[in-house]
């Protein structure tokens, strides 16, 4: 009892010393020592040493007793009940980790940053934690404070949404800690409709989703065989043994003055551990999640993903291994980083499979289906072609790329990806055409390849149409597609006499993690209305007309006030409501690469992808 009282007195004293200036939980930049507490730097260091010594003594006492002092097992959110014996084993497994060899450290540093990297880029990647927004309306969003690591944060965000909204394994656990109306509804065997009550998820539910997402990504990178978790030698095990209220203080003091400006710095501070089962990796991530929430979090997670994949395998994935993964001059995450986190391979392209250039040379794309997908503004500008693997993921969640930033787009209803009969027909034709396209996504094929497409898809073109398309010696997709739209279904085309089949109406949501001025969430002050600085959440109403609707009739496509993803208005219903004017933003161009000619509307500020 005396020992317990001493520990309680120590905790109380520490809490009282921090009352005047509590740690800011959502900042990723290092804070000045003066803002941490009223104690002097010497006292702070002494306090940290005493705390870690007390933690070590506590571990030693625990190994000499058969049961904890409380006589009851500990409980983990991820691993469930942990008995005394298991806790002793766990304590032995948790170590500071292994050093990378100097060779590995240099290979890792130059693979990520290259030669001559600027201090500004290094600062961006050393000052971004993985933290949720403190704002209630955007509490599911991972906040970005620095430019550069957005590709890492957006990929993690996409998996967090998967686990919070859709993952069946999490539904029962989430239901135990969230209100009934916040759990997803299962409407059919293959359809889930998640709740739009984003503020209903508890901190524990979000933390559990974050740990599961990080672990899933690392095992995906490790070919489902291993996960390598990187941490810092200066932090050690004190974080695991400390009270939650002291964790930020310990980490901030450990990171004080720490910078990574060279491969030598990386070699000195980095420690890595390898786990071969998801359960063990989850427990470790759960124990040290405050480290990933610190200012070094995004960089540590990228390093963990690269090491999980294996540095040599990462280089083999790439088309040009000589280029750094973090691109100059602004320090953005490359497509290889995003692809690594989404599909487990650091391939540089977004098309399906690989493209044979002849002479034994080929370009690498995404070869497997993915859990969460990817869309990009660059496709709307004809710079690339996103393949079906990334465009049609298992869950309706997409990382969205622009020229300088990554954000996240998602739907709550999995039916937004369902295809009706004619859409499935279009996908079949497009897939057959792309298989013959050797132009790198340019959208044209040879006459020989064109005849192969016609055979595979059972399209019977009139002779005059066939001669017209083949006259130039190559066939352009846009011209071929227009012919298909005008070709009757009986001949293999998509022309429909009713003109109404296939319309879809559904909602999409867009997250931008960079804190921006938001007029929708403005506050009133004595000087007038003041926009809030917070991540941006935008709800979009999307109407997708039948893809074979002639352009001259597009103005008559109404955006109805309500409806489901599979809604197919018929008869006079489409003539009742006057169409709302279509709104435009660059995100709409990205949406149209997935749903051609989609009409989008929203309330308030337009969605931003920069």
Automatic annotation (TrEMBL):
Residues 1-45, 562-583 are annotated as: Disordered. Its EC number is 3.4.19.12. One of its GO terms (molecular function) is cysteine-type deubiquitinase activity. It holds the Pfam family MINDY-3_4_CD. Gene3D superfamilies: EF-hand. This is ubiquitinyl hydrolase 1. Hydrolase that can remove 'Lys-48'-linked conjugated ubiquitin from proteins. GO terms for biological process: protein K48-linked deubiquitination; proteolysis. It catalyses: Thiol-dependent hydrolysis of ester, thioester, amide, peptide and isopeptide bonds formed by the C-terminal Gly of ubiquitin (a 76-residue protein attached to proteins as an intracellular targeting signal). It is an enzyme of class 3 (hydrolase). Residues 109-486 form the Deubiquitinating enzyme MINDY-3/4 conserved domain. It comes from the Eukaryota. PANTHER family: UBIQUITIN CARBOXYL-TERMINAL HYDROLASE MINDY-4-RELATED (PTHR12473). It comes from Gossypium davidsonii (Davidson's cotton). Keywords: Ubl conjugation pathway. Belongs to the MINDY deubiquitinase family. FAM188 subfamily.
